[in-house]
Amino acid sequence: MPVIEIQPSIYWIGVNDHTTDLFEGIWPITQEGVSYNSYLIDGEKKVLIDLAKSIKADQFFRQISEICEISQLDYIVLNHMEPDHTGTLGLLWKLAPQATILCTPQAQPMVESFYGITERVQPVDDGETINLGQLTLKFFHTPFVHWPETMMTYETSSRTLFSCDAFGSYGALSGTIFDDQLNDFDFYLKQALRYYVNIVAKFSSMVTRAIQKLADIPIKIIAPSHGLIWKNDPQKIVDLYQTWARLANGKGDRAVTLVYGSMYGNTEEMMDAVAQGVAQAGIPVEIFDLRRTHFSYILPALWLHQGVIIGAPTYETALFPLAVQLLDLCHRKAIKNKKVAYFGSFGWSGGGQRELEKWATELKWELTDTLVFRGAATLEDLKKGQQFGREFAKMLKEDLV
Length: 401
Fold this sequence. Notes:
Metallo-beta-lactamase, Chain A, 2 domains, seven-stranded mixed β-sheet
C-alpha cells in the first residue's frame, strides 16, 4: 500500500506480508498474513520508527523514498530488536550514514550481536525526550512486552504512541490501516487476541505494568508494529489488553474449551457425547480437534475460558502425544488455574490419565473428574459421557456464580 499520513508530518510506511507461513517460525499466518508497521516523521529532523522484516527490504525502502531520501534520515528508533522489526537495519545503516540509532541500553548490545553495528548507537533513558524542532519524542521503557529491551515511543504534540508489539495483531492490512475504516472489524479483534496469547500472554504482569505506566499520558493514536492503527478508539484496544492480562491468574468466563484427539475414532465418538452433556447444561463450548487445528488457534480459547475438557486416548502407556504437546505449550505460556476434566479410550494398557494428572499438577489446574473406557464406547459408556459433560458444566456454572 502507498504511504499514509496518520498525523501532520507523521507517515505510516509499513508493508504487508502475505507469504510468510509461520510468525516466529511457530504461529500460522498463511491465511491471515501480517503487517510490519513502520513510521516516518518528516520534520526538521527525519526519524524512522521501527523497521521491517528483511524479506520486505525492497518494498520497505521504496516506502521511505516516497517521503525522503534514505540518506537524509537523522534517527532510527528501535523500539524492539526482534528481526521482524529490525531485519532491514544492516542495509539501512549503510544507506543512512548520518542517522543515529536510538534504543534502550539493553538493546545496544543486541544491535551489535544481531547486526554487527557499534557506531552511531545512542541509548535513551526511560522518560528521556528528544526535541525534533516542532515535534518531541519521549521514550518509555516497557521491558518484557515482550523482550527485555522493549520500549515505546511517544510523540508529545500529536499524542501518538508507537507501541511496538503491544496492542498489535496478526492480519495483513486490507486496504486501510485505521480501526474506523474496516469492513471486518471482528476479524482483527480475533487476531489481536490470538496474537496476544501466542506472543505476549506469558508477560501479562509486565503488560499491566506498562499500561499503568502510561495511564496519565494523553493518547490520541496508538500505532503498533503489527496490525491496525487505533485512531478512532485507542482506548478499546487498551481495555482489551487489560482484560486479557487479568486472565493470567487463570480465571476466565463461564465456558468450556473441549480439546480432543483420537487415533481410531473411539475417543472422538465419546467427545460428541461429552459435548452434548455440556450443551445440555447451558454452558458454551468451543471444540478443537488436535489433529487438525494448530495450537495457535486453541490457546486463545484456553486463555479465555475457565473450563477445560481434554479428550485423548492412551498412547503406548502414556497420554496421546498431541495432547502432551498442547499441555507443554500451556505450561510455557503460563495458562494456569483452570478447571479440567479428562476422558479417553485405552486398548491394552492405561496410562493416559496418569500423565494427565501430572500435567494438571504442573499447570495448577484443578482436575475435577475423569472418564476412561477400553476400546470402543458402549451405549452405556456414551450415556456416562453425557452425564460427565453435564456435571462438569454444572460445577463450572455453580463455581462462577
